[in-house]
Write a structure and sequence with these properties.
Layout (H helix, E strand, L loop, with lengths): L8 H16 L2 H11 L3 H8 L4 H10 L2 H11 L4 H12 L1
Helix pairs in contact: 1-4, 1-6, 4-6
Amino acid sequence: MAKSPPLTRVWAEEMAIAALTFVAGDPERLNRFLTLTGLDVGQLRASAAEPGFLGGVLDYLSTDEALVVAFATDAGIDPALVGRARLLLADG
């Protein structure tokens, strides 16, 4: 049985950063994210430092089950962990 990662805020933030990297790695996914958030590519780095942004990335990811599964597969994690990370960031 695979060991569960420590479910901490730092872990959740790292997952959100990985999710943002995943989204940014595909032009179609990135364009959709930018369109829905109203950001442009130049604003991503600054926005990532703002409170709530990383939780917003996981919120965005969670709106599309296929996207969650694709990210989880790419990251080698259980898709349910995305929801857990999202909850940790929402609580903080």
